[in-house]
């Protein structure tokens, strides 16, 4: 909000529509922007009544992103990669929501093509990713075994939203030489080209 020169002084009132216009939020990001506003309300930085927004904190009462980043890194050093990814995204929200840059380029840019990979590498394992990977791999292997009983049949796999190919890399070695037709899709043309 400050980057858009929004007056956030304690007691200042505005509307969600006016804020959205001042920040130049594209219609497709209106729900995301409204979610950010609800988060600010939950943290008692603003209040929202109907469409009216009132700023509740004086400027400077909310720590800067740099201070918040430092606090997170000190408290949770094992999540350094994830913290830096969140800060990176936060720095680009305004440009992405206003259309000054394509939103997909926040995560997948030519300037830093390894952003997500580095984030994962610099963060302690905290998700169910490896379990999902193992389940997917086992499911595909069982499907192939069933097909081998029926000669002439082909297993067709359509990966929708394949992104950086995390699951593709796991599956492809198991599919070599099998009766499988694998189609990789993604909305980002660069992902598809990289996986070819």
**Strand line-up of the largest beta sheet:** 1-3-2
Biggest β-sheet strands, sense, barrel? 3 strands, antiparallel
Q: Helix content range of the residues, please?
A: 40-55%
Helix/strand-derived class?
mainly alpha
Order of SSEs, N→C?
EHHEEHHHHHEHEH
Shape: elongated
Averaged pLDDT: 87
Strand fraction equals: 5-15%
Q: What secondary-structure arrangement, pairings included, does this model have?
A:
Layout: E1 13-15, H1 16-23, H2 30-42, E2 46-49, E3 52-55, H3 65-75, H4 80-98, H5 104-107, H6 115-121, H7 129-149, E4 155-159, H8 166-175, E5 180-184, H9 189-195
Parallel strand pairs: 4-5
Antiparallel strand pairs: 1-3, 2-3
Structure notes:
The chain has 196 residues and is mainly alpha-helical. It has 9 helices and 5 strands. The chain has helices at 16-23, 30-42, 65-75, 80-98, 104-107, 115-121, 129-149, 166-175, 189-195; strands at 13-15, 46-49, 52-55, 155-159, 180-184. It has a 3-stranded antiparallel β-sheet. A hairpin with a 2-residue loop joins β2 (46-49) and β3. α3 runs antiparallel to α4, α4 runs antiparallel to α6 and α7 packs parallel to α8 (166-175). It is elongated and about 75 Å long. The two termini are 41 Å apart. 7% of the residues are buried. The model has no long low-confidence stretch (mean pLDDT 87).
């Amino acid at each position: 909000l400050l980057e858009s020169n929004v007056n956030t002084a304690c007691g200042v009132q505005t509307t969600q529509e006016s804020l959205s216009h001042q920040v130049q939020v594209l219609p497709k990001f209106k729900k995301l922007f409204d979610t950010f506003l609800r988060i600010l309300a939950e943290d008692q930085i603003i209040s929202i009544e109907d469409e009216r927004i009132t700023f509740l904190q004086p400027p400077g009462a909310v720590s800067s992103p740099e201070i918040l980043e430092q606090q997170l890194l000190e408290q949770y050093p094992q999540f350094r990669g994830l913290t830096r990814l969140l800060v990176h995204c936060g720095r680009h929200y305004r440009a992405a929501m206003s259309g000054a840059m394509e939103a997909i380029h926040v995560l997948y840019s030519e300037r830093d093509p390894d952003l997500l990979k580095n984030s994962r590498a610099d963060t302690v394992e905290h998700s169910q990713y490896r379990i999902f990977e193992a389940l997917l791999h086992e499911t595909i292997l069982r499907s192939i075994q069933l097909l081998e009983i029926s000669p002439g049949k082909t297993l067709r796999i359509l990966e929708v939203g394949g992104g950086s190919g995390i699951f593709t890399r796991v599956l492809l070695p198991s599919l070599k030489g099998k009766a499988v037709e694998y189609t990789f899709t993604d909305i980002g043309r660069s992902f598809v080209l990289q996986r070819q």
